[in-house]
Amino acid sequence: MRAGGRWDVARLGAVDPKLRALAPNGVREAAIDLAGLETLDTVGAWIIHRTQRTLAAQGIAVSLVGADPTHGALIERIEKSDVPPPLARPEPNVLLEMLERTGRALLEAVRTLGALLGFVGHVVTTGLRLLVHPSRVRMTSLVNHLEKVGLNAIPIVGLLSFLIGMVIAFQGADQLRRFGAEVFTVNLLGVSILRELGGILTAIIVAGRSGSAFTAQIGTMQVNEEVDAIRTIGLDPVELLVLPRVTALVIALPLLTIYADVMGLVGGLVMAVLVLDMTVLQFAERLQQAVPLWSFWVGLIKAPVFGLLIGMVGCREGLAVQGGAESVGT
Amino acid sequence: MRGEVIGIVGGSGTGKSVLLKTIVGLQLPAAGAIEVLGVPITDRRGADGAPIETRWGVLFQGGALFSSLTVAENVAVPLKEHTDLSAPLIREVAAYKIAMVGLPAEAGAKYPNEISGGMRKRAGLARALALDPEIVFLDEPTAGLDPIGAAAFDTLVRDLQRLLGLTVVMVTHDLDSLKAICDRIAVLIDKRVLVGTLETLLVHPHPWIQEYFHGPRARAALTP
């Protein structure tokens, strides 16, 4: 066999299958002539070494001739790195594996529920302790998070509520017109925005913006061993990292909900003026008659609960990170 | 210069890592132009059309292995992306590269978070060497390794550099490495790069260089 030209990783794709398919019949001895090689890299050296080894296993003595000294040294170096591969894992039974995964997932779900419950307890007791010692509340951190989760969310929350308000008013008017009941559009708008949509919309936006941000922040700190550092200094990660974030959400979410309510109603108002030819005054009057104040409170009362849940889940996921990037959020 | 090992040293905050990141094009230089292997870094493609990424290897400080892949898969990534080698050959290449950097064969099947920091570093080197690059950039390759591992690492870099004509650019604080394998040393000092051999730097009058090469640790490492 004669090897020639440039044997490097970019050019060897075609050579390898041929050497792999080599089927010697009755040959007892072979020689690989390397004198024609211009360049040789480790992949080329590996292929030569492997060919030699495979043939040797079939009882054929292979010698390398005419090798340039550096090429020879390279092949020798590669020889030293040829270790038998570890035992391959046995091919798993698909059905069994599926069953195993289902069981694992179930157990994991139960465990997560338990852990989350424990975490909530931990956060609540820490929070109660802070109520007794208010001086330990991390004000700077709290205000910082209030700005991030509350103030900075205002544009997106406002825009979405405004658009939803417009859509409800427009679609509602369209449907109600068939019964000649266009004027009830305001009832529809007022009740749905105030009771449900304002709060749930805000919660969804905040969960996407801030809940995942909490997970990412605390998860990165966990990977950097910052959380461990906090523990060794004698501080409580829950007090330092979790409580300010959760508290910020509990405070910010009701405020954002009120803002979302207002923007939703304004969106509906714009549509009512444009499509239903209402005046602003008529709209306001109608709203006052149709929607009891209680609707507003029903919507608002849920907001702190949403905030608590979003914050708890986000922070726990962050603290549960182990190892690397892949485990964030799973 | 081709086929030489150059070490970059400098105090903390003098910009060693920034220099390395700028050379490989992860950061734009504030001023000036950078060429690697004759290719302006902003072009990323040489005269023969081969992307510059296939001609270099980079080892980051922590190894920077992809955490969703096993070590062997990590090493295989550049091979899969940039070559037309068959899947079995890629597996073999990954296996011998892993052995070459001194990792046990079982390590190939493990995920990065299941192995130690030193092993991650070796695995990172195996990935950097996957395409048999012409030049490798190493960011503190021996930091965090035990002395035996560090010496083995030095020998490995030396071997590869001799056998493959590899050019090596390494940021290092390891005086043993500097002495054992670096042909030339670049010192970052007073916002300039000063290049010299170990011998010329030993007699250089600058106080920081004197302190660096004649401090208590340096004396222990450099006296034969």
Task: Summarize, please.
The complex is a heterodimer of chains A (about 325) and B (about 220). Chain A has about 325 residues and is mostly helical.
Structural account:
The complex is a heterodimer of chains A (330) and B (224). By secondary structure, chain A is mainly alpha-helical. Chain A has 2 domains: 2-80, STAS domain (Transcription Regulator spoIIAA, 2-Layer Sandwich), CATH 3.30.750.24; 110-327, no CATH class. Chain A has helices spanning 15-20, 42-57, 69-80, 94-132, 139-149, 154-177, 185-223, 226-232, 237-275, 280-290, 293-319; strands at 2-7, 29-40, 61-65. In chain A, helix 7 (185-223) packs antiparallel against helix 9 (237-275). By secondary structure, chain B is of the alpha/beta class. Chain B has 2 domains: 1-55 and 134-224, Rossmann fold, CATH 3.40.50; 66-132, no CATH class. Chain B has helices at residues 16-23, 71-82, 87-100, 117-128, 147-164, 175-181, 198-202, 207-214, 216-222; strands at residues 5-10, 35-36, 39-40, 56-59, 135-139, 167-171, 184-189, 192-196. A 6-stranded mixed beta sheet of chain B has the order 4-5-6-1-7-8, sandwiched between helices. A two-stranded antiparallel ribbon of chain B has the order 2-3. At the A-B interface, helix 1, helix 2 and helix 3 of A face helix 3 and helix 5 of B.
CATH-assigned fold name of the largest domain in chain B? Rossmann fold
SSE order of chain A, one letter for each helix or strand: EHEHEHHHHHHHHH
Head-to-tail CA distance between termini of chain A: 54 Å
Q: Between the first and last Cα atoms of chain B, what is the distance in angstroms?
A: 27 Å
The count of helical stretches of chain B stands at 9
Stretches with pLDDT under 50, minimum 5 residues of chain B:
none
Order of helices and strands of chain B: EHEEEHHHEHEHEEHHH
Uncertain residue ranges of chain A: none
Major sheet description of chain A: 3 strands, parallel
What's the number of extended β-strand segments of chain A? 3
What level of helicity do the residues of chain A show? over 70%
Number of helical runs of chain A? 11
Report the β-strand fraction of chain B as a percent range: 15-25%
Strand order in space, largest sheet of chain A: 1-2-3
Instruction: Name the quaternary structure.
Output: heterodimer
Q: What value does the Rg of chain B take, in angstroms?
A: 18 Å
